[in-house]
Amino acid sequence: MLFALAAILGLVALYIWFIYNDLVSSRMKVIEAWSQIDVQLKRRADLIPNLVETVKGYAKHEKKLLENVTKARTALLSASGPKEKAVADNQLSGVLKSLFAVAENYPTLKANENFLHLQKELSDTEDKVTFSRQHHNTMVMEYNTKLQMFPNSLIAERFNFRDKEFYEAEEADKKKVEVKFEE
């Protein structure tokens, strides 16, 4: 009888141990997925000074736009946490769209090899950022789901596991972008 009770308690302990380790593993996947977003955002931010310098030579009267790009880059690099990074990333994406729209007015800039290379690098990086966001949100969804499932929820609550935030687009990014040039 005592042996059977010890065996049952041992199985329960092993089950709790398994769930705990699974939750830790899932939490680490969320952290790793977030770090991939961070890496891609940093990569994009590192490309921007070269892009700004290239555009400066051609679009000298676009000073305000170039200043906005630099400010948005600085805001992204100094942001911390998913929510703050998402806001800064959205602002940077907006000013980069404006920068590329303005570049359309400068045929020699559009043909510049360095500008084309930087534009391609930024485009590739945007694709990687998008993939990283999707991957992060998938990992967050899986982790948060595990936290809500029974009996995981009991163990998660006992060991202070908390839901993670999704990386969400701002409302402004969900709207259609309009580019208008003043005449």
UniProtKB/TrEMBL annotation:
It comes from the Bacteria. PANTHER family: MEMBRANE PROTEIN, PROTEIN LEMA. It holds the Pfam family LemA. SUPFAM superfamilies: LemA-like. Belongs to the LemA family. It is found in: Membrane. One of its GO terms (cellular component) is membrane. It is a single-pass membrane protein. Keywords: Membrane, Transmembrane, Transmembrane helix. This is LemA family protein, LemA protein.
